[in-house]
Structure formats: structure tokens, C-alpha cells
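Quick bug: glucomannan 4-beta-mannosyltransferase output formatted oddly.
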Amino acid sequence: MSSGGGVAEEVARLWDELPVRVDWAAVEAQWAGARALVVVPAVRALVAVSLAMTVMILRRYKWLPIGAATSSSSDDDDKEEKEEEAAGLVAAAFPMVLVQIPMYNEREVYKLSIGAACALDWPADRVVIQVLDDSTDPTVKVSNPIIIPFFSIKNILFLLDLVEKECQKWQGKGVNIKYEVRGNRKGYKAGALKEGLKHDYVKECEYIAMFDADFQPESDFLLRTVPFLVHNSEIALVQTRWKFVNANECLLTRFQEMSLDYHFKYEQEAGSVVYSFFGFNGTAGVWRIAAIDDAGGWKDRTTVEDMDLAVRAMLQGWKFVYVGDVKVKSELPSTFKAYRFQQHRWSCGPANLFKKMMVEILENKKVSFWNKVHLWYDFFFVGKIAAHTVTFIYYCFVIPVSVWLPEVEIPLWGVVYVPTVITLCKAVGTPSSFHLVILWVLFENVMSLHRIKAAITGLLEAGRVNEWVVTEKLGDTNKTKPATNGSDALKVIDVELTTPLIPKLKKRRTRFWDKYHYSEIFVGICIILSGCYDVLYARKGYYIFLFIQGLAFLIVGFDYIGVCPP
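Here's what came back:
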């Protein structure tokens, strides 16, 4: 006992002799002063800004369904009349149409879009199918990977360039299809589209139909869209709706369907009816080539070349038409990694474009004042900046932090009523998934973490501002096995080997911590801790929301969303 007492006394003596002492009472007093002067006013300011932005978003979300609904009946009748009237013009003299299919390493889906484009109902001498292949993947671009069977070193399998072979197959059937490649990927998709317009045979074309590699238009697509352009020379673009072939594959694809259905059913429809303008979706649309030239052509200054062209065309006075009755089948990204890259591009690009064009929009003399207000305020600021900003700052930061600060109060209407109305307005786009609306909102809040980072990156033009990662498509790789007979059969060639054609493959092990998303895990833990503090001390009643929102972050953080790639 005496030795133990001596150790304690020695520790106390050494503590007293330390040159630096912590005065916890002083620290607490300093924190109280900083909290009163800085922290609380800053959080209150964030609450005020968040509530103001929430009201902006509410006004926009309430207006869009009303605008689309009030005009739908009369607009549908008008579209039918225009389509019937213009169909006669098209039948009398079919205009020359170019169908562009840009692709990059689309091994799983390239046959879908090429086959669908070649099956379009249009005179063969009045349409040109142009496949713009920027592929670099050896399994797509070079001879299909050299495979050495384990039973014999002599048998080696070769497969011709997949995309080029598919084009040659359709050429043999009499289809006017062109396979175009370029020496580099400068400008990514915009660069490929721009390069594709330089060919001599394009000069004969009046319109361009565009499809990404996973899009499959119905055979009557041109018959139902080109008439709008033929009938009205003021129309630059006819945009159609996307239909998702894998919407029911997993919860991630269901959530995407809900978001995109609202976008097409209300945002695009209302923009078309009220302002004759909306953002081009980059695919499943038909452009007038003269309008593209008038707007300055394709530009690769941002990762949203489609929106860039649409805004410049609108500022030149061109009009757009959205035809929701025409639906084009496509595939949603079903892995969280692919979806996250896609959302970065879709959030960073518009913010970067807004920064580059905000002054140009205000100085434009060719469009009306209210069209400029819509473009600057509704389309860009509220739709592309405020929506991403307020979702994360308000629901994932301000509300959890307010639990720790008794001085900060958030009105009930800002916590419950307004968010509920916004959610219900967005949920009407997909009534069949209404039972998933709470899970969908929680997931959208999680994704706001990436969207706000991407939007800030675009505004500051920093880091990954020009990052372009093609959205990975799985096609039918999870459902079917590749064909091994018929025209797609592999050719077996016997050769004598003196040296190995490929190096010995080494199995790469994925470390378990590489599978997780640590930013989501960190935010989820912080929100759950705020919920615990609310239960034990604050008692503001936010803990139910905080617990389930924190859990949603953790589920995504541990990668329990989407499917695993094959």
C-alpha cells in the first residue's frame, strides 16, 4: 500500500511541475464566449438562409406540377394536330436525318443502340447512322482479349473489333451506317459529336437524332419527332422521355426512377409549355443542325455539353418541344459507384456552366426579360445550386447541430410542413413507388453530400471540375451468358508459340477498407450522436429523423445499396 501511495504522490508532483497547465475553467469560459459571439449567430444565419432557400424550392416544386397539369390537355391536342399535319409533309419528302451514337467502352450495350437505330422506320436513302467510337478498352477496341485455354497452349481465340464488326454486319444488310473513330478523346463526348459533324456526308442532313449507347428507340421514333421540326422552323430541339428497362432491379434504380420521372413529367413538360425551354438531356432527342450551328456548335468547356448547347440555343431565340408520349428505353446505373460518378458530373457541370454564363445570360438581348429570369433564377440558381446546397446544409448539418445549441430554434413549419409538401410534390411523378417516398428522401439527403461537393467544385473550378467518367452499364451481364454460336462465335486459330502472348495474370485482392465510403460513415455517425444527445439532454424531438437519417448514411457508407458488378 505504501508503494502505491508513493507512486500516486510522485505522479501528482510531476503533474504540478509541468510547464503547461490546463485551466479548464478558463477554457470553458472562452468556449462560452465564442459560442455566444460566433457559433450561435452563424448557425442562426444558416437556419435563416436554409429556410429562405427551402421556400424558393417549395415555390418552384408547387409551380411545376401546376404548370404542367393546367397545360397538358390543351397541349396534347395541339401536339396531335401538329403531328398529323406535319406527317403529311414528311411523307411527301422525307428530310435527310443523321443518327449519332457516341460511345466509349460500351461492351455490354453497344449492340442495343446500333440495332435499334438501324431498325428505325425511315427511307434507307434518307438516313445515315453514325457510330462515334472513342473506345480504348482492349476488349472492345482491339482483338477481343487473347485467351489461352488451360488444356492447350496452341489454341488461341480472337474476336474482331466488336463495335466495328457490328457496324459491318448492318452494312451487309443494306443500312447506311458509318463507323467513325478519332485519334484522341479530346473534349470527350462533345469532342466526338463535334468531330462527327465534319464529315462530308453530314452536309446533306437537316436533323440529328442522338442516342447514347444504352438507348433503344422504338422503330417509329423519327416519324413521331421529326414532324415537329418540319412543321415549325422556330423549333431547334425535340426531346423525348426516358423509359427504364431495369427500374425494378434494386432499390437504387427505383430511387433513380422516382427522381427522373419527376424531372421529365413536370420539369421538362412545364419548361416546354411555359418557356419553350428546358435542359437537353443529351440523348433521345432530335436537333435541327442549323440551330446547333447558330448556337456555336458543341463546346467542351464543361462536362454538360448538352445543357451548354441548349442554353446557347435558347439565348439565340430558338424554341424547344418536349414530347412525353415518345419514350426511349434506357438503362439506369445499378451500382453505387457508377451512380455517384454520374451525379458528380450532373451536379458539377451545371454549376460550372452557370458560372461561365451568368453574365452572358443577363446581357442577352434576344430573349425576353422573364425568360432570362427563368433561366438565371429558376433553372440555374434554384434548380442547380440551391436545391443541392440546402438539402445537405439544412437537413444533414443545421438540424443536427441545432440539437447541441439550445439557443437555436427552428420553426415547426420549416422542419415538418414545408419539407413534407416538397416531398409530396416530387413523389407524384411515380405513383407506383409512393410507398418508398420516405426511403427515397433519406437517400436523396445522403446523395446531397456528393452533390454539394460537386456544385462547389464547379463554381470554384477546382479539383475534379472537368472529370468525365462514363457511367458504367451492366447490360445483360447479370442475366445471360454470352453467345457462343452463330455470327458471334469465336474463331479458333492454331499457332505455334515461342513466347507467351500475355503475361501471367496475378490475382488482385481488394482490401476490405477500399469498399467503404468514409465520408458517408463519418456524417452518419455524427448525425446519430446528435440524435442520442437529443434523447438524453436536448429533447427537441428531432431524434427520430436523426436516427433514421444517420442509419441511411451508414447503409450507403458500408456499400449496402445497389448491386455488385459481375
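Actually, after a second look the formatting is fine. Residues 458 and 465 are 5 Å apart (CA to CA). Closing.
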